[in-house]
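Risk register update: the risk of archive-format incompatibility is retired. Evidence:
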Amino acid sequence: MFDTERPKNLLEKLRSFNSKERFFMVGYILGNPDFKPSQTFVEEIENILNLKFPKELFTAMDYHIDWLYASLHLAFNNDSFGIHPNDDRLIKGQQEDIDFLIAFLQNDCCHIVLIEAKGTMAWRNKQMRSKATRLGGIFGQEGDKWSGVIPHFLILSPKKSKNLNISDWPSWMTLGGEVPWGKLSVPNGLRKVTRCDEYGYANKDGEFWKLELRKNCGNSHRQAAFDTATQHIFRR
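Archived output:
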C-alpha cells in the first residue's frame, strides 16, 4: 500500500541535511533566508518541465548527492543514528552536489527538481555522465525507485549545449530525447587570468600571466583578436 506520509517525511529529511554555509550566508545577506525563488524563475521552470509548482517549496543550493540519497533512505526506512547499509555504494563520502534543488508536495507525491548550471565553463561529458550514473542509481533508470517520489532534471547555461552525450542517461533526466534546458543570463566581458610563458601561450608552469576573456559569455570573437594582439606584444 502507498504510504502518503513518506513523501512528507522526505521533505523533512531533505531540510535536515541542508547545512551549507553559503545557503545561510546568501539568504541572510539578500534578506531571503528560505531561498524563495522569484515568480519569473518559477514560471520558466514550470514551462520547461511542464509542471505547476505550489506556493510552498523547499529549495537548497550546492546540495550534496550523499544527502539526497540519505534523505530518501531515511524517509523510506528506519530514521535513526545507527549504522545503515551501503551495499550499492551510493554514499560516496565526497563533495559531488546538485547546484540547486527544489522539492515540493503535490497530489501526495514529492517532486524533486535537480538543476545543474554552467555560466562561464563548458559542459563536460565525463562530469555529467558521472552525475547521471549516480542519479540513475539513486532514483532508478525510469525514476520510479521510490514510491511517491518523482525526480526531474534540467540544466541552465547561456547557450544550449550541442555536445552532451545523453545516450546512457536515465530516461527521467530527459524530455523528448533532449535535456531540459533554460537560458542563464551571464554578462559579456567577463575576464580571467591565465598562467603563460613569455610569448603568451598558456602554461601551468609559466612565469607570466595574462588576461583572457571568458569564451562562454559571448566573447569568442573578441578573444581571438585579444589573443593575437597579446602574442604580438610579447614577441616584440
